[in-house]
Amino acid sequence: MKGSQVRIEGVSKRFGTFEAVRTVSLTINKGEFFSLLGPSGCGKTTLLRMIAGFEDPTSGRIFLDDVDVVPLAPHKRHVNTVFQNYALFPHLTVFENVAFSLRLKKTPAATLTAEVEKYLEMVKLSESRAKLPAQLSGGQKQRVAIARALINQPAVLLLDEPLAALDAKLRQHMLIELDAIHDQVGITFIYVTHDQQEAISVSDRVAVINEGQVQQIGSPSQIYEQPANAFVAHFIGETNMIEGPVTAIESGAVIVDGKTVGSVRSACDKKAFPGNPARIVIRPEKMHIGTARPTQPHNVVEGMVHEVIYTGFQSKYFVKTADGAIFKAFVQHSSAHAAAEAIRWKDQAFLWWDAADSYVVEAP
Amino acid sequence: MKRNYGMAYASPVFFWLSFFFVIPLAIILTYSFLSSGLYGGVVWKFSLQAYASLANSTLWEITRSTLWIAVASTAIMVSLALPTAYFIARSKSKNVFLLLVIIPFWTNFLIRIYAWIAILGNNGFLNNLLLSAKIIDQPMQFLYNQNAVILVTVYTYLPFAILPLFAAIERFDFSLLEAAQDLGAGKWQSIRKVLLPNIKGGITTALLFTFIPAFGSYAIPQIIGGRDSLMLGNVIARELTVTRNWPLSASISVMLTLVTTLGILVMLRVSGRQASGHGRRSAVSSQNAPSSDEVGIPV
Fold this sequence. Notes:
By secondary structure, chain A is α+β, with helices and mostly antiparallel strands. Chain A folds into two domains: 6-230, 3-Layer(aba) Sandwich (Rossmann fold), CATH 3.40.50; 238-361, CATH 2.40.50.140. Chain A is 23% helix and 34% strand. Chain A is elongated.
């Protein structure tokens, strides 16, 4: 496996009185596609810039394959960055932009041309080699930035919100290309984004960051299905949340008094004690909706359909309970008739779900 | 029909430039081809006498020293202005520093030159300081030589180099320097390979804005200079007022204008050619027509 392991040990970064990164420790494996995901201002870009060498940590150490890189200047580190605004050199052609690092290394002309052509080929830009950055579209600029960073054969590629400036369709497309490039070059990718969709669709693992602290590290499905806390649950995808005291404990499950919602039963992989408060997360696509009261004793919510949003492949129902809480249910249209039979606005409806489909997150 | 107001809008500039630039230049050019009057002025008789006297060897020496003073002070100014402008552009209190750069303009130009006499004169501040510190036992001659002229020229015109460079550096995207360092360039390499090419317009402007006034300098060598630092501006004044050879002073003026114009053209040509280098390569890439840079017209 190519690429390097990146080990971050107790890294903090303070700007004046503002603590951007608070004692973050995490290990990124060789060749992994690793995402740092969080809202803007959460410290993810600062963390990336510390790995690149543009910021020095206030405390803590950063290792690249067991070498502490904190004392090294950016140009001495075996990492390259794809910048958010691309940072292409406006006075140089596409070819010269990509050739920049090789020219610095005084690579012989023949090797240089062959290498640059190879990487231009990889990002499908051979035709544009003589253009200036100002003559390129956003997606093309992005590709130049990727080729320019990869030609140096870094051990780790750092990507700082690389797709943020592109439109939604192109973003999808570039994401798939990035994934293909990752498979092809096999080095470690560290991908910074605030877009949970981007992060969970291509990453091997994701670190969710908020207020300078790592909230959870895990595979995309772990992050989605087993969020560590309420922040992660809310940040990744959409969520229904019920809070209440634990009334009974069964093997691998708890019963919670959901107050107006009634009794709620949920799978639970944590230690629970009767009387302690618990938070239960149910993803909207796991909710069932109907006008007839279901027979199951637990996990039923009754209310009025407050809003229906039809999105083609699914309908989103927002049901308002008597005390004003809103519950969401997303129903997939698996057959063409499904939409027609749908529940309508202002209908009285029931939502129910399976205890195995909900998850208990850290108690508040 | 749509009326074209372009000429009407441009007329103030047109008249201004005609009255204060084109017509005076035409008068100088005409005078340079006339005969000199006995008691000054000109006699309306065609003559190449003025241009013939340009071959005079002392005049060539003065031209050489004028060029040297102008080139040396321009080089010093731009090399001082680059780091200064860089510092101001990156500083948090840009406006304060810009104000400091501009403040000297609030004092009259001549007063500021005379102030240098108070500093550098034999009984001036610097000599007294050195004497009282017992570093020297008799006053040193700082004034009335070429170095003094270069020093005061640099002092006087430095803001003309700092301001255009500041404007160019402030527009520069500093994340490009990070990108260069990320790709393996050291600090100096990133400045040389990325910053300098991207602020070329500002550098050209700074060179022109300092070289032109330095080359046409009159007051500074008159007040601060000595025998070795006579400049063309002083010769023109002497021929006009003392020797009263108006055609000669006109012909020197024409020469000064020609040399300056030539310098500007060469400089613009050089920076224009570099900019069009990319245009030429993109022309090869088929769909791009040759850009206007090809013709060497600087924008």
